[in-house]
Each structure stands twice: as structure tokens, then as C-alpha cells.
Write a structure and sequence with these properties.
Oligomer: heterodimer
Strand order of the largest sheet of chain B: 2-3-1-4-5-6
CATH topology of the largest domain in chain A: Rossmann fold
Strand content of chain A: 15-25%
Shape of chain A: globular
Distance between the termini of chain B: 29 Å
Radius of gyration of chain B: 16 Å
Structural class of chain B: alpha/beta
Structural class of chain A: alpha/beta
Number of strands of chain A: 23
Bound molecules: iron/sulfur cluster
Number of helices of chain B: 8
CATH class of chain B: Alpha Beta
Largest sheet of chain A: 7 strands, mixed
CATH superfamily of the largest domain in chain A: Thiamin diphosphate (ThDP)-binding fold, Pyr/PP domains
Radius of gyration of chain A: 27 Å
CATH superfamily of chain B: Pyruvate-ferredoxin oxidoreductase, PFOR, domain III
CATH architecture of chain B: 3-Layer(aba) Sandwich
Order of helices and strands of chain B: EHEEEHEHHEHHHH
Helix content of chain B: 40-55%
Strand order of the largest sheet of chain A: 3-2-4-5-7-6-12
Distance between the termini of chain A: 38 Å
Helix content of chain A: 25-40%
Chain lengths: ~625, ~200
Amino acid sequence: MTLQNISFMEKPSKQILLGNEAIALGAIAAGARLVAGYPGTPSTEVLQTVAARNTDGAIHVEWSTNEKAALEVAAGAAWSGARAMAVMKQVGLNVAADPLMSLVYLGVRGGLVIVVADDPGPISSQTEQDTRFFAAFANAPALDPSCPEEAYAMALQAFDLSERYGLPVILRPTTKVCHASAAVDLSAERRPFAPGRFERSARWVIFPPLSYRRHGEIKAQQAQIGEEFSVSEFNRLEGDGPLGIAAGGVTYAILRDALMARSGAADWPAALAASALSVLKVGAVFPPPKALYRRFLSRARRVLVLEELAPVIEEQLLALKGAENLTAVVAGKLSGFVAPNGELLLEQVARYAETFLSPPPVTAAATAPEPPVAVTAPEPEPAPVWPRRSPVLCAGCPHRASFYAVKKATRGQRAVFCGDIGCYTLGNAAPLDMTDTCLCMGAGLTVAQGVKTADPQALVFAFIGDGTFFASGMTGLLNAAHNRADINIMILDNSTTAMTGHQSHPGLGRTVMGEETVKIDAAAVARALGAGFVERADPFDLPAAMDAARRAASHPGLSVVIFTAPCSGLFRPTQLCRAEKCSGCMLCVREIGCPALRIAAGVVEVNAALCHGCGLCARVCPSGRLRLEARA
Amino acid sequence: MDILIAGVGGQGTILVSKILAGAALLAGGRVRTGETIGMSQRGGCVVSHVRTGPVSSPYIPPGGADLLLALELCEGARHLPRLKTGGAAVVSTARLEPVTAALGQEAYEEKAMRAYIAARPRARFIPAGETARALGSEKAANIVLLGAAFAWGLLTMDEESLLASLAQNTPPAFAALNRAAWRAGAEAARNAADDREVTG
Ligand code: SF4
Ligand code: SF4
């Protein structure tokens, strides 16, 4: 018996899984035949886990070029009868919005589940948008898990739901479910694949008359699905107190812990009994479970809605209350009781619940916005402020060298540096300070064109990674060529999708399933899209890199430099830098800010455990006191 | 029991969390974890939460942790307020200065950090980085720290479950190194006896 087997012997079907892993295994058990996605925190591990557990290669798993491609590929499989899943983060759904909106009208045959991970906070995203809201906009049913166990159950059932109604279903976990782990029961039998066969039918061709008819049908279905959701295992009305709290997704789990702490009860049933509350758990959230909501609002006359991101449940309750002339008072984000932005952590949930439950119950308080002040735990004494630790480019990161080369090459000139989405967004930090704009995937290239038009005197650069270039940069480059934009596009080619943990992309010649495939050359693409000046440069060869940047800048019209050097996360360093008799000028620290450089007793010291031996600091040191040597 | 693990991206906090969670499951208990995954992994602070017992949510509230395991000194100081009164802490003396400190924008005050942490009666220090380096890889510092925490009697899981979980969650190629790191941590802790500072 190997150690590997112990957990299975003692707990035959339980494994500790991240929420994202649970979703992946749920989809595998449900018989998903195709899984396509685009990486993005906090969703990335879903597809990665399917790929890792797909040992017999039966499931087609792909990192698509972007989310739109992923959803369309999945739709094709689902139209052919197979079960399919598309995976992305919330801003990725913006990219896939075009296919999503029409796809709901056409519907599906095989179950199609779209996993869209939301990021309250936001922790690693551009926006705090809410996919439940998007689902309602697109008319797609939406499920919102409260924990990894439920994420697994929802992934399994979402495919059935999708097939029963012929609609794509959105499974929307949030960061605190995606990246939380729990012991998940994996005893469900894996369902065999449905045979795939595309049947020709007018239903797969969208035309205005079809859309008109389907729009009516979809709305009629929604009432039905809402009824089903009223008795769904994912929605629950617990307790029967006169005050009510409704909680969506992970906030329900947090509410349980908050109420347990408040009552001092040993478990949830005891805490619920002690609280004299009606608690509404909402997991199957769109279409709204109106019958269940009706019962909730008749049982509890004053209710608090706790949900992260948009006030979706709150609006659903208010709409029902308005439509049916119910008297309940609803407090939440719309009433100003709950903050509109940020996460709902245990401490906030406890505070809101405390304020809501504190006697005397002020009937007007729910509508008159009053900042909740009561705190369950005494505020800890203010802690000293320690140095902040913001994320930075890794030691040995090639992006640092590329940014530095361009910075030096343009010194003394008025230059604008448009950035993009990836590790290199961190080029904004001191001391590089090389990111002036960042909007969304691929936008740096096009924003640069607008800046250059409005401000022709400025030297305009756009930085974009290789992965982002293939995902969303090519149309921007084409646009620049076609419209004669005089901008300089710096493609930072580090041979990976680094930010999200090294996923494959079209430039790498290998798929996520490990197969060799055609390797797309970014330089050839840039030329084919119309760029006249296209050069590659090694960013660690500082003079050559600066020269390339200078020539690009002086080239009239569109120019492209592809800085090529692998991400330091892709290889083990063979070299190490050492500081000897550092003069203390601190130029290296001030110029490049490598995290492996530290100052001790007025001189620079290299942290050998972190140094990746890239040699950039050695090039910067004016007195040759930093030297590379072979690693032991 | 609520255990908070704090460190800097790349130090292996998530591995510590996985080992603890796996051990709790092997020992027949209930467990949930919450991880920081994403942009902050690029040299930012990384915090993992491990909660055993009848909890529903994965994150430990401020002032709620029974035990803090810190893989870096400044992170130990930063996350100390998350301990409940009377909570225990095991803090590695490894220092990783943020770039802002090297740039002179902020000061990395080692003495102040140590004093702040030492004010907690149940806080202990261990030179986990140096101990691991002596074994051949600083990367094993997280296991050194775990071994020390166990030897100090701060973990509720039994040794067999912890070691089985360690083996399950790490590649076989590192098994010998990790066992050595575990033992070295445990030994350093035992030798420290009542002296709260392990000078290694
Ligand atoms: S992961 Fe790679 S690309 Fe990202 S910061 Fe580190 S070295 Fe640079
Ligand atoms: S060689 Fe210099 S710049 Fe490169 S990783 Fe090492 S310390 Fe940093």
C-alpha cells in the first residue's frame, strides 16, 4: 500500500478539493465531453484540473485563444449533442458576451455549462461586475455555490438542468469558493458520454423571426425554472423568526459562522434556533425562486439581504414585493444599509447582522441609510504599520529588462507607455514606472492609437505579452496598420501565459492536452497584419534591446519589437549574481528594483535564494561590482 | 481550531495549508481552507486559512486565529493581530524585504518586528530559512516550521497523519529532504525547551 492510497482507504470517497477542482470533477462525473476556457483568476484551476484528471484523454480540453472562442467551441459541441463546458473569469464573459446573448436564443441540445468565476474585492480583476446580473440580462439560468461541496453538486446538476430546458446554464462561483477547499464526496458514478451527432435544423440558425419566437418561449420557461428553483436543494428557508436574512452564495456560509459566533452555539441548527431568525439561502438564483421568496417575505416582515457584488437577490425580492403589494421591509445595498463594493467577510457580515438584529428594531432604519456601527468583537488595538508588500515582477523577469531598455532608450523624450493585462502590468510599480494606461485585454494597442492621434507630439508605446497578443491584440495591431498609426508595439514574448500560472497559447506549439501543434510566430503575424518594422530583440542584451526600441521609435509608422526571453518561472537558473565591494551608489536598486537586491549596512547584497542570474543588475552597475557566476 | 499561515509568494504557504488539511481529514476530522491565489503570488503577501471543526466558511476573522504560522518575519508581525488573545505563533526569522524597503520608501525594522511579536506570550521564533538551507534547500523552510510547530505541541493533528499528508502532497523526489526538514524543525523546537528564541 502506498501512502497515496491511505486517504482512499479511510475515507473512500472524500478528497480535499478547491472549489475549482470540485467543479472540474463534477463536470467530469457529469460526462462533459469538451471543456474549453481562457485562463483568469479566480477561474483558472477548473480547466487545469480537468486536463490533469483527463488521464485517458477522452475529454477534449483546450485553452482557447480567448473566452469568445471558448464559448463558441463549447456551443458547437453542445449543438451536436455532447455535454460541454466553457470556463472563464467574470471579465472574460465580457469578451464572450456576443456569443452568449445569441446562444440563449438558440439554446442547446447537449448540456452546456458556462463557469464564470466572480471576484468580489476585487482581488485580481479590473471590475466588481456580477455574473448573476449578466445571466439575468442574457436570460441564462444561474447557480451560485456557497462552498466547494455545493460547487461539485451544482456542476453535476447544471448539465441536467441545461438539457432539460435546452438552455446554457451559468455556474458562478466567487473567489471564496474557487480558492477555498473542503472534503468533497466524489462517489458519483461518471456518466458515459452522449453520442455526438450534429443534426441539421433551422433551430441552429439565428434569424429575427426565430429570435422573436424564442424570446417568448424563454420567458415562459423562466417561470417554470423559477418554480423548480423554489424547491431546489440549493435554495432553502430555515428557521421561522419574524426577522429575516437572505444570503447568496458564499455569504450564506459566512452568515452561518457569524450567527454561530453571535449565539455561542456549537453548531448551525442550534445557532439558528437561538437567533429567532428566518434565513433564506439562495444558491439557484436566476430565474428567481418566487414561491420561496413569497414564503420568506410572508414569514419575515423585515429582512436584510447579504450578497456580494450587485444587489441581485435584493432586487428580485423588491420586484416581487412591488408586484404583489407585499408589506415586508427590505434592507440591503439598495437601501444603503450594506456597502455597495468590496467583499463581505465574516467581520462585515457579523457587523451587519448585529446592527440589523440589535434592539430596538427601528422600522425606519431599514430604509433610512444608517451606517452600521456596532461591532461584535472589540476592535483590536491599532497595529503598527509594517512595510507594504505589493506584488512585483519576479527576480530575473524578462519584462523588467524590456521595460528598462525602453525607458532608457526614450529618456529625455516625452513618451506614453500604454500597458495591458498580464504580469507586466506590474511594470507600473516603482522604480520602473512604465505603465501609464491599462484598460482591458488587448486595449493597450488601440488606446495607444487614440493617444497618438490626439497627442501627435508624444512618442507612444504599447506593451503587450505574447499570450495577450494572441488572445486580444491582433485586431488592435491590424487596426493600427490599416489606419496608419505611428505607434510602437512592444510584444513581451516570455513563451507562456505567466500571470495565471503558465498556460499554453498559440505561440507555444503545444496544447493543454500535451499534444504538439502548429507554433504561431508573433513576428510573422505582425508582418502579415501589416506592420512594416518588425524585429526581435533579447531584452537582457541591454544595448541591443535599447537600439531596437530606438529604431522602432524613429521608424515612421507602425513598428513592432518582440522582446524575446523566457519567463524566469520556466527554468532553473544556472547563474547567480554576487556583489563584491559594492560602492553603495544604489543605482541598481533605484533603476531596476529587482526583489533579489537588498541593502544591508549601506551596500547592496544579492539574495541568493531569489536571484535568477539574469544579469540585468550587473549591466546597470556602473562600477562592475555585481558579477554573474555559475551556480553551485 | 483556526490556523493562519502567512508568507511571501513563492514560500510555499499553500503547501503548508494542504498538508494540514490533508492531515485533519486523515485524522477523521472536518476541515476547510481558504487560499490566496493570483496576482499577490508575485512576491506579495500570501495568507492561507485552515479551519477544523464545525465551521461553514473558509476564512478566519481578524482576532480569530488559534495559531499563526509565519514563514517570514514581517508577515508574522503583519498578521499577528489576527491571533486571538492567548493564541500561539511560530514565526520564521527569515527576512524578505519588499522592494519598497530597498528603495528607501519604507523601513524594514527587524528589531521592532521581533519585539512586537515577542510581546505575545505564546509566540516563538525559529530560523526556518537557515535550517532548511543547511539541509540543501531553502524551499523546505515551510516544512521546518511545520515540524517545529508540531514538536511544540501546537498542532492538533497526530504525527502519523501529518507525515502521511506531507508525503501525499509533495513529489516523491523531495520525500527525503522534507522528512529531514520536518525532523530538523522538531529538533530545533525540542532543543529550544523553554527558551522562546531558537538561535539555531
Ligand atoms: S511569472 Fe514570469 S513573467 Fe511573471 S513576473 Fe515572474 S518572471 Fe515575470
Ligand atoms: S542577476 Fe541581478 S537583476 Fe537578475 S535576478 Fe539576480 S539580482 Fe536580480
